[in-house]
Amino acid sequence: MPRPPPDRSSARWKSPPPGFTAVRTSSAGRLALELINALLPSELRGVRGLHLVHGGARLPDVPNGGAAVDAVRRVVERSALGPTTGSLAQEAERRGIPVMRLDDFSLLQLGHGKRQQRLRASITGRTSSIAVEIAGDKDLTKTLLADSGLPVPRGEVVRSVEDATGAAERLGYPVVTKPLDGNHGRGVSLDLRTPEAVRAGFDHAAERSRRVIVEQQFVGEDHRILVIGGEVRAVAQRVPAHVVGDGSASIAELIERENRDPRRGSGHERTMTRIEVDGQLRAILAQSGLTLESVPEDGCWVRLRYAANLSTGGTAIDRTDHIHPENAAIARRAALIIGLDVAGIDFIAPDIGRSVRETGGGIIEVNAAPGFRMHLEPFEGWARDIARPAIETLFPDGATGRIPILAITGTNGKSTTTRTVGHILRHCGYTVGMTSTSGIWINDDRIMEGDCSGPRSARMVLRDPTVEAAVLETARGGILREGLGFELCDVGAVLNVQADHLGLKEVETLEDLAAVKSVVVESVRREGCSVLNADDPLTLAMARHAGGRIAWFSMQDSLSDVVRQHVSAGGLAVVQEPASIGNEVVLYDNGRRLPLMGVAEIPATLGGLAAFNIQNALAAVAMCYAQGIPPPVIRGALQRFSSFEQSPGRLNVHDGHGFRVIMDYAHNPAGLRALCDLVTKLRPREGRVIGMVSTPGDRRDDDMRELGRIAGRVFDVVVLRERPDGRGRAPGEVMRLIAEGVAAVDFPPERLHQVPDEIEAVDLCLGMAHPGDLVVLTPTSVEAVWSRVLAFTPPLPSELPRQAAEVV
Predict the structure, then answer these.
(1) Between β-strands 362-368 and 469-473, what pairing exists: parallel, antiparallel or unpaired?
(2) Element containing residue 614 per DSSP (H, E)
(3) Which of 155, 303, 417, 699 has its CA 20 to 30 A from that of 521?
(4) Residue 763: exposed, middle, or buried by beta-carbon count in 10 A (0-12, 13-18, 19+)?
(5) pLDDT tens for residues 491-540?
(6) Residue 282: how many CA atoms within 13 Å on its side-chain side?
């Protein structure tokens, strides 16, 4: 049954198609707004709420829509992929191969991680650099081919006009002159029959190379034979730039008319290239006694270039079905001898349908990075699908170049679940690339520090050539800013949707927030799996638009109707079964009940007391099982996941100072509430609970006050601190708002402390602690705070300040 279309409310947060640039998107978006604004009735353009704005400024009317469209078209043409690269990108996308643009030109990455291949036009990551160098040296190319018995013209390399004319005399007229290391037909002169013509040809070639080739001219038509992976895939007869007279228009007018053909453009941006009027063109006309003002007779064919390259305005006629097998064999051998995986063989033959062994002719050049456009859209004849075999050589047997991508979002628990999944995959032998709010990791190596839960970080992991599986923490901010950083994922999970970041970037309600986070599961590929929290109404509703199969996870004492029906139908679910029947993590799949392990066996749950880490473990189990990791591997990995090194800042416990310290990144009301639920279970019988609390400055005032109310109800001592970045708040404002919440629950004011600096606040909490106390720290600088905890030296009983007891 086809998947329903994605919810419109979340479609605006999808990533743009590969190859799009910010410039293109911005220019087209601005034009769209300007055009809509121009359509509004004039009396409405000034009505508050109806005029359009862009970048904070009201948009003007569009006086000349055509010019605006042309301007956007020019932007698109400047940033668009050329015909060759574009055809390969389109074929890759058709095959389901991810495409990533690595620069503003034509460098592409196809596939992800360890399975990626790179290309620029028709140069691929498998193209030998030595082969490219050989092909660039026309004399060496000709020598290697001649030594292998292939037909090539005789020639000499010269450095002076005198040497050029001497070589021509020895070889016999007509001759060709060309740069030793030229390309695209630049600097080539054909049909030179006199010493004067050779001198002019030498000067023309010497403008591009210090060394010039003078060689025998083969007689016949110019052909380009495209060899990919050792096989001839297309043949085109190339016709030099020319015009055909009509008896009334001048040559200049005929050229202008030809350049108006929409198939012609600048450089390689279109199927054909515009004909440029320059000194060489005028010289060629002069040899025939013509000028740009001459009016050719009706039907008169006027040559404008010697070389038949498309880049100088030539056209192409498809001859793929006409090539003689022996000519094809010669071309194949030439590509193999030079060592090119993709080669353009320039082949002169009087009749491509007859062997050059009997007609004369042969190979005049072998080209690395041959253009595809003459084969994709020839001026005459059949278009050839040459991108398909090119991609097949890079990704044989239907390979897609994909690595497993597991993406995780939610309000709370993202980092812990991401690290748990990464730990399990590593236990299975993968090289794991992981993004999180604490950095980017490739196995044990942190390659970037900071909040790396956005699309740029995801792309960094997917570009790494060592990564075999990507585990991506995917935060709301990055989705809103520029999408996901990937097109499709294999497993996507939404852990929960709770009040946080509301009031920012048009996300006003929990439903808005759910729409943003649902993008992750909407982007799960058809054969993948969406992991959803069956205990959260907002994630429950996401199943309607989620991709792939659905996997539920749940902590309810008894299975809900949704989960029960899902399991009965053979669906996948991971649940915590209650203590009455073992307090186990249990998998349900395909009608089978598969007990995995006791909840208390997972160290991160602190013996089953940390409910939020039980929930995170259930999500991680569902994700890894859906990815095909065997249950015994999952169980073994979970039993070894607990330390600070594996999950810094997420429920780290230290018991070395005579009192317990718990460090956890609980920065919003839901997160602190879950942490306080655990603290209540761990509350010491005799000691106190000392808690350090803060939150980012971009949260709502009411959220900050709620944080204070939660802390005031559970902690015996509350220490408030600031964050380094107030995110628009004045210094002290965050502490003041949280303090209002603390005071609202009748918390004794003498037990409330406000210490702006984080490390000083940590030192105060640790310094106040007595044996048997519980200290709860919610840090920003996780490593610095943990180092402070480890380095703390408890004072001797005689050294304890007398006022310490009085403070509380």
Answers:
(1) unpaired
(2) helix 611-626
(3) 699
(4) middle
(5) 999 999 887 667 676 778 888 888 888 999 999 999 999 999 999 999 99
(6) 5
